Structures are given as structure tokens and as C-alpha cells.
Predict the 3D structure of the following.
Amino acid sequence: MLDYRLKRAEIESSDNIFGVVVLAYLESLETKGNLDKRFLSKLSLIKKLYEKGYTKKDIINLYRFIDWVINLPQDLEKDLIEEVKRYEEVINMKYITTAERLGREEGLKEGLKQGLLEGIKLALQIKFGLEGLKFYKKIKNGKDITELRALKDAIKKAKTIDELKKL
């Protein structure tokens, strides 16, 4: 393995999965006793897994190997995990267009609205019976999230359906 030190640039530019294994081993030797360098080296190797375009399964397996070969104290390992999470968020955000992001936000709002409506319907039925369900049919269309939240709070306070309508 030590002979590969001379071919390091070639290995780094290769997409060969075993090149990562060799690099991890070399890095473990070269960073022994220097935790800062070891941390940066391990992080760099992990980032390269994503950059090379390996499959999720390959990334997980190689990550395990790197983790086994380049060990860090627990506090630095936690920091490393946080850095990897941040990196994953950054690379995932690159692929999301503005339209997709807005679509997701709209979808989340619609999901929240539907959840609130279902909860309100159930609360009206439990608290006011048939009168509550009749009231629900009148209010279920065209309400925004702010109004629905206010209605939810009003249901808690109201003792009768007429009191609820006033609120």
C-alpha cells in the first residue's frame, strides 16, 4: 500500500472505488497524531464520495471503511457528522430549482391546511355533534391557515355552536 503514495494524484483522479480504500489507508498513516489534519482528511475523503457520484450503497460502505480506518475522538466525530450533514444539505439544494422549492412550500401549506381541516371537523363533531358537522360544511372551503388556527382556538373556548359562530 505504501507504494501507492507515489501514485496519489492518479488515485485521487480515478473513479475506481478501491482508490478510496487506498487513500483512506494512506491518510490514516499520514495523519497519525495530528487530530486536526486527521479530521480534515476524513471530511475531505467523505466529500469526495459524493463528488465522484458513487451510489448510495457504495457511499455508505466506503464511509464505514473510512470511519474504521481514520478514527477520531467522539467529540470530533460529532463535529464531523455535523459537517457531513451540512454538506449533504448543500449538494441536495443545488438540484432543487426555485420552482420546485416553491412547489414544495405550497404542498406543505396545503398539507397543513388539510390536517387542520380534519382536526377541526373531528373537534366540531365531538364537541357539537350534528350541528358541528353542519357548521363544518359551511366553513371548509376557502379558509386560509391563519383563519383555521383561529377557528381551532375558538372551538376550544366556545360552549355552544352559536357562541362559536360569534367568535
